[in-house]
Amino acid sequence: QVQLQESGQGLVKPSGTLSLSCTVSGGSISGYYWSWIRQPPGKGLEWIGFIYYSGSTNYNPSLKSRVTISVDTSKNQFSLKLSSVTATDTAVYYCARVPSTTGYYFHMDVWGKGTTVTVSS
Amino acid sequence: QSVLTQPPSASGTPGQRVTISCSGSRSNIGSNTVTWYQQLPGTAPKLLIYTNDQRPSGVPDRFSGSKSGTSASLAISGLQSEDEADYFCAAWDDSLNGLYVFGTGTKVTVL
């Protein structure tokens, strides 16, 4: 079955850029939307954005000015960059698959285990 | 920024029925389907209910979802100790360019 694995920096300095990747195994990245979600310590979930395998994106308006999500179909991988980070960006970051093709049915059926990113000097 | 409101906690004894509410607005629950995620302690969220009331393969039928207007509910019947977890509702929101919004989350405790 499809599995997702996040990887990247665990520690980022304030004002720096957070960079994470999500590798898809057991299936193809093609034909699906893929999402990033984060969860600050002890808090709820926040959707960051999604990318279609062809490259089209949609970002959370609250993060849009700082977020870039990209895809590399040759590596079966998609990535997240978040610039100008502060301590409030400290969170567990998850990647997930979106099996739906419209907002009406939007949901995420396969999740990675998550990776902790701490913003600190 | 959670725009879907859930009670912070719910509890019950083994075998009891527990219901969690999720309140939204016309632009999210009122216009799109609702999803429920279960997050066991220290783990990633797991898809529990999608398209308001559909269970993925492997999810026990003691979990059920419903939606009416701008609200949704998750019911757990025959509560079991392994159901102790955080539960989040979610839906697409049609405002601005569209975004996916989560509920505030409900911690279910099995007494």
Describe the structure.
- The complex is a heterodimer of chains A (121) and B (111).
- Chain A is mainly beta and 121 residues long.
- Chain A contains no helices and eleven strands.
- Chain A has strands at 3-8, 11-12, 18-25, 33-39, 46-52, 57-59, 67-72, 77-82, 91-98, 110-111, 115-119.
- In chain A, strands 2, 4, 5, 6, 9, 10 and 11 form a seven-stranded mixed sheet that branches. Chain A has a four-stranded antiparallel sheet with strand order 1-3-8-7, with no helix packed on it.
- Chain B has 111 residues and is mostly beta strands.
- Helices cover 0% and strands 45% of the residues of chain B.
- Chain B has no helices and nine strands.
- The N and C termini of chain B lie far apart (31 Å).
- Classes of the chains: A mainly beta (121), B mainly beta (111).
- Chains A and B meet through strand 5 and strand 10 of A and strand 7 and strand 8 of B.
Biggest interface reads: A-B, 24 and 30 residues
Q: Tell me the helix content of chain B.
A: under 10%
The biggest sheet of chain A amounts to:
7 strands, mixed
What's the number of helices of chain B? 0
DSSP helical segment count of chain A? 0
Structural class of chain B: mainly beta
Strand content of chain A: over 45%
Instruction: Please give the largest β-sheet of chain B.
Output: 6 strands, mixed
List the helices and strands and how they pair.
The complex is a heterodimer of chains A (121) and B (111).
Chain A: E1 3-8, E2 11-12, E3 18-25, E4 33-39, E5 46-52, E6 57-59, E7 67-72, E8 77-82, E9 91-98, E10 110-111, E11 115-119
Parallel strand pairs in A: 2-11
Antiparallel strand pairs in A: 1-3, 3-8, 4-5, 4-9, 5-6, 7-8, 9-10, 9-11
Chain B: E1 9-12, E2 18-23, E3 34-39, E4 46-49, E5 63-68, E6 71-76, E7 85-93, E8 99-102, E9 106-110
Parallel strand pairs in B: 1-9
Antiparallel strand pairs in B: 2-6, 3-4, 3-7, 5-6, 7-8, 7-9
